[in-house]
Design a protein that fits this description.
The chain contains 18 helices and ten strands. It is α+β, with helices and mostly antiparallel strands and 562 residues long. Strands 1, 2, 6, 7 and 8 form a five-stranded antiparallel sheet that branches. A hairpin with a 4-residue loop joins strand 4 and strand 5.
Length: 562
């Protein structure tokens, strides 16, 4: 949408837009309004003031009755207090931490700080490594510097006692070994002194605390101003009007004033994913790969179904799936995305576990035991791969239909002609390995389709050898990508084989050892295989499924709001 706004109406119009929260404004990130730099600096100062009194930052912008100059005046009187409090608070924390370390040091000698206050002698307290201590002690003793020490677990606690004339030599020796002794001021302060310092810090904080409501209002207003001036940066001027461009999702469209032009844009617009709530947790896994372009079909639902199916196929166990589902259920509030994915993956694992007859590694029955149905399991894996890859072809064609790119739909890398070649390859495989029938006619049709696909590629690129090589590679990839799904069956077999090993070891133990081995084996398998199966599932989706249709590279729809 393009808006043409009279200059005197711009502030009111931007406020209306901010409240509607529907327009994603087209921005030029290379430019910034001069006031944005000042506002950002004031925002930081305001955030510092609120953080020093442990007050949360207001989440939403809100227009208040402040001028920039007024804000600067209010903050300037508080910034000096903040700087003073901030410095003293850091010093307090440093002293407190150092004092705790010193008290732990003195505890090793069973002495107090008062006992180290010699009348005519001076001292340095420090830690030394075992590696350097003997050399340090030898050098110090050469200058008549006494070493009192206690051996601790990792270090040696040392107190060196010397006359005032040997102080510079003592410091020189410690510096040689990169040793920093305890600060002398620590021997003059105690917990009560620190408590008084803390009370003074808190008293100064009260000056800021009294103004917390005003500071919060300022912060909200600065957020509001930042949003306004960031938009004013992108405004273009023409004949006394401001020109503003942006996108509104069709389903959220509302009539707005000052509209000069509006048109459908599937190419350059931001992406808004309307994912069904059930599949929403998997949206982040799709975004991790890349956000789809606006003209692409949202793949999240397909991604989720495939993820859940493949996870259960590779990790089928009623008991272990129940553990994953239970952990996911408990995490669903604190870690919503992780919790829901674990819950659904666990339920899938339970479903396939019921088919395999596995319960915490025990075989309850032999309905479809992986170890006894290896060929069927491999066939199921390849069939699943063929369905997933075929779905990728269909999504590629659907995307290009949406773009009205008929050439790519028919002759693209994963278009209709390429899909026909893939389906024919599958049919030839079925005839060879299952039906055991003649494939001469099928090979003839395959050759014709392959020549047609290669011919079109050569026609488009004008590069014969490169296009031929590209077509052959594509043909081989179709085969290898499908065979790649055999790994799903292999993991189901590995899961069963791993428990065979666990039970073999368990049976060598007594009754108690048997159950300990089984429990530890289950914990090990849930953690190790759970991670590996997740990685393999993501790999198959990202590299075998997404490569068929997914461009990615989109950017997220973020409406302007105030």
């Amino acid at each position: 949408m393009t808006f043409e706004i009279p200059k005197d109406k711009i502030d009111g119009f931007l406020e209306k837009l901010g409240k509607e929260k529907i327009l994603h404004i087209k921005k030029d990130t290379r430019k910034k309004h001069p006031l944005v730099y000042k506002i950002n600096n004031l925002l930081k100062k305001t955030a510092d003031l609120l953080s020093i009194i442990n007050e949360p930052l207001p989440a939403h912008p809100k227009k208040e009755n402040f001028q920039i100059e007024e804000i600067e005046n209010i903050l300037s009187s508080l910034i000096s207090v903040y700087e003073d409090v901030s410095f003293k608070e850091k010093e307090y924390k440093r002293k407190k931490e150092s004092l705790q370390k010193l008290n732990k040091f003195l505890k090793a000698f069973n002495i107090s700080k008062e006992q180290l206050k010699f009348k005519f002698l001076k001292f340095k307290a420090f830690y030394s490594t075992y590696e350097n201590f003997e050399e340090i002690k030898l050098i110090l003793s050469a200058y008549n510097i006494l070493c009192i020490y206690e051996e601790l677990k990792d270090y040696i606690a040392v107190i060196s006692v010397y006359t005032p004339k040997n102080e510079s030599k003592t410091i020189e020796i410690l510096q040689k070994f990169s040793i920093t002794p305890f600060d002398e001021e620590l021997f003059e302060i105690d917990e009560k002194t620190l408590e008084k310092e803390l009370q003074l810090i808190n008293k100064k904080k009260e000056t800021i605390l009294k103004e917390k409501d005003v500071i919060k209002k300022i912060y909200s207003h600065l957020l509001y101003l930042k949003n306004i001036y960031e938009i004013k940066t992108v405004l273009k001027e023409k004949n006394g009007f401001y020109i503003l461009e942006g996108w509104v999702p069709k389903k959220r469209y509302k009539p707005l004033p000052f509209v000069k032009n509006k048109e459908i844009d599937f190419i350059n617009s931001p992406t808004l994913l309307n994912t069904p709530k059930f599949f929403k947790p998997f949206e982040n896994l799709v975004k991790t790969y890349s956000l789809p372009k606006p003209y692409e079909i949202n793949p999240t639902m397909f991604f989720a179904v495939i993820f859940i199916f493949l996870f259960g196929l590779m990790f089928g166990d009623i008991g272990q799936g129940a553990v994953l589902a239970l952990i996911g259920y408990m995490l669903r509030n604190k870690k919503e995305i992780l919790g829901k994915i674990m819950l659904l993956s666990g339920l899938s694992s339970m479903f396939f576990g019921a088919i395999y007859g596995h319960f915490f590694g025990f075989e309850l029955y032999h309905f479809f035991s992986p170890m006894e149905n290896i060929n069927n399991l491999i066939a199921l894996s390849i069939f699943a791969g063929a369905v997933i890859i075929s779905t990728g072809f269909i999504l590629y064609m659907s995307t290009n239909y949406k773009k009205r790119d008929i050439k790519k739909l028919l002759f693209g890398e994963n278009g209709l002609l390429s899909f026909a070649i893939y389906l024919l390859l599958l049919w030839i495989g079925i005839k060879i390995f299952i039906l055991h029938t003649d494939i001469k006619f099928d090979l003839l049709v395959l050759g014709i389709l392959f020549i047609g696909f290669t011919g079109y590629t050569i026609y488009e690129s004008k590069k014969t050898s490169q296009s031929l090589f590209h077509s052959i590679i594509g043909l081989l990839e179709n085969i290898t990508n499908t065979v790649s799904f055999v790994r799903t069956g292999a993991f189901a077999l590995a899961h069963a084989a791993l428990f065979l090993a666990v039970f073999t070891i368990a049976e060598m133990m007594d009754k108690t050892g048997y159950w300990i081995t089984v429990i530890l084996g289950n914990i090990f398998v849930i953690i190790l295989e759970g991670v590996i199966v997740t990685i393999q599932t993501l790999r198959l989706e990202y590299y075998e499924f997404f490569k068929r249709f997914y461009e990615g590279g989109g950017y997220e729809y973020k409406p302007f709001e105030l």
